[in-house]
Design goal:
This protein is of the alpha/beta class. 53% of the residues lie in helices and 22% in strands. The protein has a single domain, classed as 2-Layer Sandwich (Nucleotidyltransferase, domain 5), CATH 3.30.420.10. It has a 5-stranded mixed beta sheet.
């Protein structure tokens, strides 16, 4: 089996997912998806902390926990389906990369719900946590770093300039066609870094 990695770039309720391998030390995309991390793509579910802020505290805590459990389950399903597909083609997903927000650790739920800025941060963190838990459930090693440090770290690790790195990442998606937005590019770069770190 050849080694492969997943890369994610999470959003509220969904994630960009890119699987890639290294051939002659160069990345090649094996799969690209945009799995949903909520049962229904509605504001209520995509913005769980915003929704929880309108509920009694005990109900809010239960609601947020339910959304995170559901997001983890949906992420695990997407990962396991990708693992099975790639395994049938001779690739083993061994690790994943995930850019994280650069924010400080979040306080407890009561303090989060009292701050609109923290509510926004917490919504994003919930889906990133779900991806990390799902990856671990699938026996994959996590590689995480701050989103804003991804390109700089990649340039240092790969010993190439920023323009050349971005050119290569853009070229990776050309054979696939759209969508190959910044989300897919950063997911691919995270997967590339995960493979290099392993």
């Amino acid at each position: 089996m050849k080694r492969a990695a997943l890369g994610f770039r999470a959003h509220s309720g969904w994630t960009a997912l890119v699987a890639l391998c290294l051939e002659r030390n160069q990345p090649r995309v094996l799969a690209r998806q945009r799995p949903k991390l909520v049962e229904k793509f509605t504001y209520k579910l995509r913005q769980p902390y915003h929704t929880a802020g309108k509920m009694p505290f005990n109900q809010a805590a239960e609601f947020v926990a339910d959304i995170e459990a559901s997001a983890t389950r949906l992420a695990e399903e997407a990962i396991r389906n990708t693992q099975a597909e790639l395994r049938s083609n001779g690739y083993e997903l061994t690790c994943f990369g995930l850019p994280l927000a650069s924010a400080r650790p979040l306080p407890g739920l009561e303090n989060i719900l009292a701050s609109h800025a923290l509510v926004h941060t917490a919504d994003g963190e919930l889906f990133r946590r779900a991806l990390i838990h799902a990856g671990e459930c699938c026996q994959m090693t996590a590689f995480t770093l701050a989103d804003r440090e991804l390109v700089t770290t990649a340039c240092q690790t790969l010993e190439i300039g920023k323009e050349e790195l971005l050119r290569r990442i853009t070229a990776l998606g050309r054979p696939l066609g759209p969508p190959w937005s910044q989300d897919e590019k950063f997911a691919a770069l995270a997967a590339w870094m995960a493979l290099r770190s392993g």
